[in-house]
Design brief:
two-stranded antiparallel sheet, single chain, Serine Threonine Protein Phosphatase 5, Tetratricopeptide repeat
């Protein structure tokens, strides 16, 4: 009798347990609503990781601008960007992992009942500023790209917008964002603001306003060769309210533990790989100028000597200089925009006849000095360096573009995407062809293969319009 009772109870319990089986599909640990601030942070972090990482599946621009060379794998230094589908990965990160998160943050901010209307307006403006930054990266990488229809889920095959038209609209958006930023409200909280979170809450909106004005200078100077009038107006409007010292730098501070670590540390130290060495192009140039940043950028080879490797050729790791500990530290910071960069723009602006105050030489000196001090050098070292006839603005060889171009290329070390933009824009320095180059110098990345397959009509139209989907095709702003 006991057996039957036990059996009956078991059946009853089994029935009770399986009766409401659909409840097992409920994701009890998934967030019902994602805070807008978290989406903003995630989008910004994804952007910073992409422009910082040396992972050759994502960011190969350190080889393209010949700051680094590789020891074994030569595809990327030789301008082969398609074997690893690098354009596809870069495109996906910028659209899916950055822009979509930022767009969703903008959608959700107005419904946040915990913040004031003034703070909502500030957060929307700050989020839009980062979207402007990201779209500029896409345009500077590919040329014409999806823009007006890019984030519309109802449009399966978005058109590619004209790159110059996009740039014009980005400047309009920045003006609106700058006007919207109001110190009567707050920005994002410190834990959500990965760029200016360390700034006092009452000063954070002002910091973002300086960033937006500095970004306006950056975008305006990029188009200076094709629309001098627009560039002049924008730069003169923005310069008085842009960065005035390195304290204004837009810097992301990585942490001393995973997963919030510097991605360079992950690829160079944690992985124990020996893939990268200093490129002879930059090492030779710095040695010729007696540049005090050599030991700050690199550490010597195993014999204690600074020797650069050949770009495009195999290089035996112990024989060549390597990226410095300052670059590869687990918590090393990453820069989105910096004071020295803005001062180089101001020096160039003076040469172009824009009214930004000062002289080309004074801004150039400020930029070089700020770079040296940022990397750990001293004022005395900067002063001595600027007396070098190959560095001094009055005696350095070449046109203003060549003088500024060389020093900006050096100052943008460890910011390879930005260095790539400036090398193309200023045509300085002239970089030698790598061994085994598959093409001429890459002025852009080709469109992703997925676009050719899934959005062929838009892709075909855009490719024809820009002059061909080739790496050597120049972008609209790259005219000289």
């Amino acid at each position: 009798m006991k057996k039957y009772i036990i059996f009956s109870l078991s059946v009853l319990m089994l029935t009770a347990c399986t009766k409401d089986i659909e409840r097992f599909n409920e994701q009890t640990k998934a967030a019902a609503n994602v805070p807008a601030a978290s989406l903003f942070s995630n989008g910004v972090r994804n952007l910073i990781d992409a422009i910082t990482t040396p992972n050759v599946n994502i960011n190969v621009f350190r080889m393209t601008v010949q700051h680094w060379a590789t020891t074994t794998y030569q595809d990327e230094p030789q301008y082969d960007f398609n074997t690893r589908a690098i354009p596809q990965t870069w495109w996906r990160i910028m659209y899916r992992d950055v822009l979509v998160d930022l767009q969703e943050a903008k959608r959700l901010i107005p419904s946040d009942i915990t913040i004031t209307d003034a703070t909502k307006k500030n957060q929307i403006a700050i989020t839009d500023i980062m979207q402007v930054y990201t779209y500029s990266v896409l345009v500077n990488t590919f040329g014409d790209v999806p823009y007006t229809q890019a984030l519309d889920y109802n449009v399966l095959f978005p058109k590619y917008d004209d790159a110059k038209t996009i740039y014009d609209d980005l400047l309009v958006r920045l003006d609106a964002d700058i006007a919207a930023l109001n110190t009567a409200g707050n920005a994002f909280n410190a834990d959500a603001d990965l760029i200016y979170g360390s700034v006092a809450a009452g000063s954070r909106v002002a910091a973002w306003k300086k960033f937006a004005n500095s970004l306006k200078i950056k975008l305006a100077m990029t188009i200076a060769d094709v629309d001098a009038a627009k560039a002049k107006t924008a730069v003169e409007q923005a310069s008085p309210n842009a960065f005035t010292s390195a304290d204004d730098n837009a810097e992301f501070q990585y942490q001393g533990k995973t997963p919030n670590n510097n991605p360079i540390w992950a690829d160079l130290i944690q992985s124990k790989r020996q893939d990268f060495v200093a490129a002879s192009t930059i090492v030779t140039r710095m040695q010729a100028l007696n540049d005090p940043r050599i030991p700050l950028f690199f550490k010597p080879n195993d014999a204690g000597v600074y020797v650069g490797g050949s770009v495009g050729s195999n290089n035996t790791f112990p024989l060549f200089a390597k990226p410095s500990d300052a670059v590869a530290e687990i918590d090393a910071p990453s820069l989105l925009l910096s004071y020295d960069e803005i001062e180089f723009y101001r020096a160039e602006a003076v040469e172009r006849g824009f009214n930004v105050g000062g002289t080309a030489m004074s801004h150039y000196n400020n930029a070089v000095t700020a770079s040296i001090i940022y990397w750990g050098g001293t004022q005395a070292q900067a002063n001595a360096y600027l007396l070098n006839t190959g560095v001094n603005y009055l005696t350095a060889p070449g046109t203003y573009k060549q003088k500024i171009g060389v020093q900006k290329w050096l100052a943008l070390y460890n910011r390879p995407y930005d260095a790539w933009v400036e090398v193309r824009r200023l045509d300085s320095p002239t970089l030698p062809a790598p061994t085994g180059a598959k093409s001429g110098y890459p002025n852009r990345l080709t469109y992703p293969t997925n676009e050719q397959t899934l959005n062929n009509s838009s892709y075909t139209s855009a490719s024809a319009k820009i002059g061909g989907d080739n790496v050597e095709t120049k972008l609209f702003w790259d005219k000289f």
